[in-house]
Amino acid sequence: xxxxVSLTELQLIIRDSLYMALPDxxxxxxxxxxxxxxxxxxxxxxxxxxxxxxxxxRARIKAxxxxxxxxxxxxxxxxxxxxxxxxxxxxxxxxxxxYHELYGLSLIISDIDPVFTIGELAMKRQLVxxxxxxxxxxxxxxxxxxxxxxxxxAVISSKNAAGYSDFINQLKNNSFGYSFYxxxxxxxxxxxxxxKSVISALxxxxxxxxxxxxxxxxxxxxxxxxxxxxxxxxxxYHVTQFPLPIITGIGHDKDVSxxxxxxxxxxxxxxxxxxxxxxxxxxxxxxxxxxxxxxIDGSRIIIEKNRNRIxxxxxxxxxxxxxxxxxxxxxxxxxxxxxxxxxxxxxxRASLIPSNQESxxxxxAKSYILQKEMLVNRNVQRLSTSINxxxxxNSVRLKSLGSTLQLLNPENILQRGYSITxxxxxxxxxxxxxxxxxxxxxxxxxxxxxxxxVEKKAKTGEGENRRKKTQGQRNVETKGQ
Length: 481
Description:
CATH 2.40.50.140, Rossmann fold, five-stranded mixed beta barrel, disordered C terminus, 15 strands, 4 domains, five-stranded parallel beta sheet
């Protein structure tokens, strides 16, 4: 076909072809993916069909319920099912295929079968219950021991919910005057956020499980649609695994959710939950009072029996005690006489000990003194000999040192022809200590010579030194004194 057509003409061809191929109406099973109601009252939906894994989408199409039909279908569906049309709900709808050149393909819904949805919800609910039972977790939270005094309560609810206010007021104003500690975990309990919000609240409480005795999940009324979110498997599974007892107050008089079934206790309203907690403490208190009364009565009976036994035993024991006291008195008298005799003998023996000890001590003292005198005499002789030897040695050394000092006497050295040269009282050891024209003093054995330095020369050798010394003496102007 080579004929050219416009886009509008092609769209009309498609529409007419669809109408000719699909002239009838069809009952279609689908899940609502999106639903919106505009200001004109029309309802726009997106319908999908999922794969068996319930995750991947295998088909998708737009659908419309016109306002004049939507008002009737909405009221009819909610009245029969107790549910409102919402995302995630499976429905059976009567539709006709429509194709528009601007808006494309869509389904026009003219009727909804509420019976199908009821069956679908019931089947889904039963599948959740069956799965929990097969996993062996359905009654786990019910098996937890309930606290005798449930006073520390974690509350999963919305802060603005009327049910939460009723719950708190009922607890605080109880006629018994019991005190309760409550911690609100702000949670959304309706709409698509219910699952995520409730699980998150349970996880937060689990991180501080030691602070609480139990958990309550409450909401104030609401539609059947809101209640159906608590048929969710994930919420129910988290409740079964929670380490504290959970009480629910989320249902209606005729409705019980899966979460209610797996909780430790399920009550209809938040007020009923508060009354149950109050009654639990009152029952525990009454039990304790009954126990205390029983203990008091039992104690009185035991005391009375024992008092009678004591009196009877006292009467029986008096003669026996007299006999025993008499026997003990005789035994004590015998012991006293025995102790006195032993004491006298010990005193006599003790009087002999000092004289013997005195003789022994005197003999030992004399022997000891004699030994010490002999030791002192030997040490005196040794000391005298050592002193004489030391004096003799030191006398010889002193004579030797005296001779050495005599030889080293400066007068004796000068007498042998040596002299001492100095400048300003400082003895000269080399010519670097003087300069030309300095006046120097030369000390001889007899007398002193003052000289003026004319020239000084460095030492170059022994023979050269003697020559220079002779030459130097010629160059020195001498002056006798």
